[in-house]
Amino acid sequence: MGWVGDQIDSIKSIQFRQLISQAISLGMIVTSALIIWKGLMCVTGSESPVVVVLSGSMEPGFKRGDILFLHMNKDPIRAGEIVVFNVDGREIPIVHRVIKVHEREDSGEVDVLTKGDNNFGDDRLLYATGQMWLNRHHIMGRAVGFLPYVGWVTIIMTEKPIIKYILIGALGLLVLTSKE
Amino acid sequence: MHSFGYRINALLTFSVTILALMCAIASFSDNFNSPSPSSEVQVMKINWFQKKPDGDDEVSLTLNISANLQSLFTWNTKQVFVFLAAEYQTPKNVLNQISLWDGIIPAKEHASFKIQATNKYRFTDQGSNLRGKEFNLTLHWHVMPKTGKMFADKLVMPGYHLPKAYR
Questions:
Q1: Within a domain: residue A138?
Q2: B window 106-165, beta carbon within 8 A of A
Q3: B63 within 8 A of B41, measured Cβ to Cβ
Q4: Contact B61, B47 (CB under 8 A)
Q5: What's the CA angle centered on A75, arms B27 and B87, to 5 degrees?
Q6: Which residues have C-beta within 8 Å of that of residue B42, sequence separation ≥ 6?
Q7: Is B85 on the interface with A (CB under 8 A)?
Q8: Contact A51, A155 (CB under 8 A)
């Protein structure tokens, strides 16, 4: 318990000047995280540049807990690409593969049909009632990169909020009690 | 300075950095692979060809697909997703892509194959333009890495025709 005792001692010995410098360093950490996130949004052109895979519908390619990096640009959508889309009336975006594309001559608008690699049928059952195709505005981005397992951190934190609070508390304590 | 917490922190930071670096290098090493896949597809049979009640043309095909995709595999390859799409142009649409068959190749040993398949997804047009239509069959592949950047490419095989009349 020597470590905890040390930490408590160092909290007791906090002085006003030190407190301010620690508050600033905490602020620096939070703002730099925010800068990185917003910077990624600018670079990738997608409003959520990183998504965590939540279901097993793309197994064995993507498993639950994997992280995908998204990219969005003006390039036309083509069959085979893995896109992240939002269906009206559904909150959670879905990551699936495009299997059919019909691109209009005049307007350039596309009709897209998707399917999960591990699902038996296509996604018409997941779309809003009566919706046959996805259009450009449903699509948030296409997956370009992949990192396994890292997303488990967020899945655990959303499903067990207590762990999130413990983690944030411990980190805060560490920052407050650290001496340069 | 050398407390327990600091050592844990330093160790954790260092190992995460090394891991991230290794992932980046593994992904980068994929760039040195220059694959040369080959494929051949024959339309064996038109099972049926009709105009559906809603006015769209639909056709059912039996295909003979052979391909060798072994050169796509590197040490950072988890799987290769391969699919065959019919691609054609109609007066209304500049591009129609319809996936007819797909498969997941989990390992290099399975990457050279020859199969016969009827189309897995419905070959339906948006409209009634399929009679006598010339179309390409394109073999697309998506390489899913163990970590890092995904790769995709295709092989276009032109010059296929649908029959001039429904059957």
A1: yes
A2: 106, 121, 126, 140, 142, 144-150, 152, 154
A3: yes
A4: yes
A5: 95
A6: B63, B64
A7: yes
A8: no
Q: Would you state the structure tokens that stand for residue A131, as one six-digit string?
A: 């919706």
Cα distances (Å, whole numbers) of residue A93 to A55, A96, A131, A161, B53:
11, 10, 16, 21, 34
Look up tokens 């390489």; give the residue. Answer: B143
Nearest to A132 by CA among A102, A93, A95: A102
- What's the ipTM? 0.83
| Active-site choice (A25, A32, A75, A96) | A96
Domain total in chain A? 1
Q: How confident is the model at residue B87 (pLDDT cuts 50, 70, 90)?
A: very high
Q: How many CB pairs under 8 A join A and B?
A: 88
> Which residues, including other chains, have CB under 8 Å from residue B49's CB and lie 6 or more apart?
B57, B58, B59, B60, B130, B162, B163, B165, B166, B167
CA distance A100 to chain B (A): 5
Is A175 part of any domain?
no
Nearest to A101 among B9, B97, B145 (CB): B97
Asked whether residue A73 is assigned to any structural domain, the reply reads yes
Q: What is the CATH number of the domain that holds A85?
A: 2.10.109.10
Which residue segment(s) compose the domain that A120 sits in? 50-152
CB contact under 8 A, A144 and B98: no
Strands A110-115 and B112-118: unpaired
Pick the closest to residue B60 from B157, B162, B155 (CA basis): B162
Kindly tell me if the per-residue pLDDT of A105 is higher than 90. Answer: no
Domain-located, residue A24? no
pLDDT tens readout for residues B89-130:
998 889 999 999 999 998 888 889 999 999 888 899 988 888
